[in-house]
Specification:
Layout lengths: L3 E5 L6 H10 L3 E4 L1 H9 L5 E2 H5 L14 H8 L5 H10 L6 E4 L4 H5 L6 H6 L4 H11 L5 E3 L5 H11 L4 H30 L12 E6 L9 E5 L12 E4 L5 H14 L6 E6 L2 E7 L3 H11 L7 E5 L5 H7 L4 E6 L4 H7 L6 E4 L11 E5 L2 E5 L12 E2 L7 H14 L6 E5 L4 E6 L4 H12 L7 E4 L7 H9 L3 E4 L6 H11 L2 E4 L8
Parallel strand pairs: 1-2, 1-4, 2-3, 4-5, 11-12, 12-13, 19-20, 20-21
Antiparallel strand pairs: 6-7, 8-13, 9-10, 9-11, 14-15, 16-21, 17-18, 17-19
Helix pairs in contact: 4-8, 8-10, 12-13, 13-14, 16-17, 17-18
């Protein structure tokens, strides 16, 4: 019996060559709609599916292949006597190869002006049904959903007259991954339309971006996956201009730097080590901003990641080139900056579209056996209901410094304390088991620069000991959420030392 292949693709990359080779091998080719027209126009002999089913395409093309004469040919076991008897009885011929890719639903909903009607019409029904039928029956049927697999299939057919069981199973697994991802786009799109925040089932899909040399440590295997519909303002969608591949730790640190630089509109630079900021600076120019970020902690920045929110020019590049950095992230690099920085073989240069307004709707964190989701923490100083709790009001200069501290402290691992002025961080205490411990680290790092500076805390003070430590170091204003049962103790201590203390009503834990 002549072998048959069913070809129906929306992405026609490579399909002509594939069809021509199958034709040379004696396959009867079945097709529908646009694929049939395309192949016929290029001289390939095609049998229309409606010639096989004796039933026309109807409902504007919504029903084409949903027919027993198609799915019987896909699902029949070739070595099952009862199946073969029923096929003969019903005039069904087997289909040996299925090559299908689906209506571009993901690409459709990614358009900013997409309508619900257009999205619905791009939900493929017949395609996934044929793919699933063929993939279920992969013991007998070769099913292809990716043009990248055409060459391997053709090679096996040419050499062995059949694909191997191993290849058919690998391709079937790929099909089910593909249809599962396709359905997840549809389910999430429709769920978003309903406004349901926490559906009873949550299905997320990611695509492999790269395998990594190792994870956090050399004995741990790792890979990096990206969300196809995720934010463009992300490390997952960064353009790497120069340098070797990113590592697992690079990606984590770079993401932390990027989330922090999002906080600033004026020229700003952020330096990160181990997912915590070690220095943040702002200025009139990006070179000035980086100079302050470097001055904030010239020791810890060594081997760190730097994010800048303006193009890296020659002046900034000269500063960056004097120290060892793993990664530099910016909207762009000038030609002079590229020439200077690429002299360092291993440094990674990444560009990201800072003008992108799209943010991911949820942050996700895996735990063993489960997944946590939460909204990103986008709450800033301007969103807070600012209350001055002390007798002394902060000065205008102190308010500017408090804003910077509040923008930074939300990105520091809890317990978090930031000491800063209006232009740069002076000391950062991160991840300690008690708040006064973080404060002591930040104040020790700031040293004499703490005199006249401000302090930011990610959560309330359970006791007045942090205020006491701040006062002795010369801190003049503090910003914190408030809300402790012992707030009055901290207020009284601040009043004792003439410190202005601002409550925001919102905490910024970061675990």
């Amino acid at each position: 019996m002549k072998k048959r292949a069913l070809l129906s693709v929306s992405d026609k990359s490579g399909i002509l060559d594939f069809a021509q080779e199958l034709e040379k091998m004696g396959y009867e080719l079945l097709s529908t709609g646009g694929t049939k027209k395309f192949l016929e126009e290029n001289g390939v002999a095609i049998t229309a599916v409606d010639e096989v089913t004796k039933f026309p395409e109807i409902l504007g093309g919504r029903v084409k292949t949903l027919h027993p004469l198609v799915h019987g040919g896909l699902l029949a076991k070739h070595d099952d006597a009862e199946h073969q008897s029923q096929m003969a009885e019903n005039g069904i011929s087997p289909i040996d190869i299925v090559c299908v890719n689906l209506y571009p639903f993901r690409e459709t909903i990614a358009k900013p002006d997409v309508t619900v009607e257009d999205a619905i019409e791009n939900i493929d029904i017949g395609g996934p049904t044929m793919l699933r039928s063929a993939a279920k029956n992969h013991a007998y049927v070769t099913v292809i959903v990716d043009a990248a697999d055409y060459a391997e299939v053709l090679t096996e057919l040419q050499n062995e007259q059949s694909t191997t069981p191993e290849t058919r199973r690998r391709l079937a697994a790929k099909v089910f991954r593909h249809t599962a991802a396709y359905d997840s786009y549809i389910s999430n799109y429709l769920t978003d339309l309903t406004g349901e925040e926490y559906p009873d089932q949550l299905t997320l899909t990611y695509e492999l971006s790269q395998t990594l040399r190792y994870g956090e440590n050399p004995h741990q295997k790792a890979a990096f996956y990206r969300s196809p519909l995720g934010s463009n303002f992300s490390i997952a969608n960064a353009n790497q201009v120069h340098g070797k591949e990113l590592s697992y730790n690079n990606i984590q640190d770079a993401n932390a730097a990027l989330q922090m630089i999002k906080e600033f509109k004026m020229p700003a630079a952020v330096a990160v080590k181990h997912m915590n900021p070690c220095g943040v600076g702002t200025g009139e120019t990006i070179a000035d901003a980086f100079g302050k970020a470097y001055e904030a902690d010239s020791t810890s920045i060594f081997g760190g990641i730097v994010a800048l929110n303006r193009e890296v020019d020659a002046d900034t590049a000269k500063q960056l080139a004097t120290i060892f950095l793993e990664i530099i992230i910016a909207p762009s690099f000038s030609d002079e900056a590229i020439e200077l920085l690429t002299q360092k073989k291993n440094i990674r240069l990444l560009t990201i579209p800072f003008d992108s307004k799209v943010r991911d709707k949820w942050n996700t964190v895996t735990v063993e056996g489960g997944l946590l989701i939460q909204q990103p923490d986008v709450f800033g100083y301007d969103d807070a209901d600012i209350q001055v709790a002390t007798e002394r009001q902060p000065t205008e200069a102190e308010i500017e410094a408090l804003k910077l501290g509040w923008n930074v402290v939300k990105h520091v691992k809890s317990n978090a304390i930031v000491v800063c002025n209006s232009e740069m961080t002076l000391g950062i205490g991160a991840g300690q088991m008690n708040r006064v411990g973080s404060a002591k680290i930040a104040l020790d790092q700031a040293g004499s620069a703490a005199e006249g500076a401000v302090m930011a805390s990610d959560a309330f003070f359970p006791m007045n000991d942090t205020v006491e430590a701040a006062a002795k170091a010369g801190i003049k204003a503090i910003i914190q959420p408030g809300g402790s049962k012992k707030d009055q103790d901290s207020i009284d201590k601040a009043n004792e030392y003439g410190i202005a203390m601002v409550f925001t009503g919102i905490r910024h834990f970061k675990h």
